[in-house]
Design goal:
This protein has 277 residues and is of the alpha/beta class. The chain is 42% helix and 16% strand. The chain is built from ten helices and eight strands. An eight-stranded mixed β-sheet has the order 1-2-4-3-5-6-7-8, with helices on both faces. The longest helix is centred in the C-terminal third of the chain and has 18 residues, at 259-276. The radius of gyration is 17 Å and the shape is globular.
């Protein structure tokens, strides 16, 4: 197994893990976006969810203002944005930027690593799940399979969690409403199911995750199963004992994989091996 490749691609920090077994010809690729909770950097997410059993490159992209792009080496700037305007300064710009910068980063990494982007899966945890869902809903990039872990399926639920942390209600307006509608993937499920080839999608939801996020995961899976030609290509897996994070705080540096993260890793690996082919 080769050494991890790290650096930046088109300005996006990344950690790329080569296939852990020999693959004939160019290997497929799994592209993953990390959580804002722990693990909150590309390197830490790669350690928590290495997906070593998937015969593919696994590429972990850094989210804006995280990891190598933290301001003054801390997450404080991101927290300040969430407090200032949870929708328009935090959720929307973070997800939008991560989705917009993806194609250029992917093209550069393909040149560097030599993987086969025609056989690509996307994955994401929490707000990184919103990025993966954005890629699926916009339908511009071919995707063979997808896996989400405690995903942020509806932006309004994330704003609700921030409201609980700051202790005051969010002041919605037309602009923030519109942005939240774009990041409501239950409402946009028809766009995901309208892909030329429907993407097999696994949603891993922790039994101890936030109740609103668990409900949203149920709603997304229910909506897509009703729209997919093969309903079993959409699966919800509840993991007992899994809360929201996949790693212990601070979750910035790579750390040994927790047993609960190993349980998630096994579920995602099995799904991607089956559907990435």
């Amino acid at each position: 197994m080769g050494e991890p490749v790290t650096g930046t691609a088109a300005g996006v920090p990344f950690t790329a893990l080569p296939p852990s077994a020999e693959v004939s010809g160019p290997a497929p690729v799994v592209v993953a976006w990390h959580m804002i909770d722990s693990p909150r950097t590309d390197a830490a997410f790669a350690a928590a969810l290495p997906l070593a059993g998937v015969p593919a490159w696994r590429v972990y992209l850094g989210m804006p203002l995280c990891g190598a792009r933290m301001i003054d080496g801390s997450m404080d700037a991101l927290v300040e944005r969430a407090r200032r305007d949870a929708m328009l300064a935090y959720v929307d710009p973070i997800v939008r930027q991560a989705a917009l910068e993806f194609p250029a980063a992917l093209a550069e990494l393909r040149e560097r690593c030599g993987f086969d982007t025609s056989r690509m899966a996307v994955a994401g945890g929490s707000l990184g799940g919103s990025v993966a869902l954005t890629i699926l809903a916009t339908r511009e990039i071919p995707v063979r399979a997808a896996a989400l872990v405690n995903p942020a399926v509806r932006a309004r639920s994330v704003v609700g969690l921030v409201e609980g942390l700051v202790g005051e209600p969010y002041q919605w307006n037309d602009e923030s409403d519109q942005a939240a509608d774009q990041l409501d993937f239950v409402a946009r499920s028809g766009e995901i199911s309208a892909r030329e080839k429907q993407v097999p999608l696994l949603v891993v939801s922790g039994e101890e995750d936030f109740p609103s996020l668990r409900t949203d995961a149920d709603d997304l899976v229910g909506a897509l199963r009703g729209q997919y030609t093969v309903p079993d290509d959409v699966r919800l897996t509840r993991v007992p004992g899994l809360a929201h994070p996949l790693a212990d705080d601070p979750g910035i540096e790579p750390a040994p994989q927790l047993p609960i993260a190993k349980a998630v890793d096994d579920e995602v690996t099995e799904w991607l091996v089956r559907h990435l082919g």
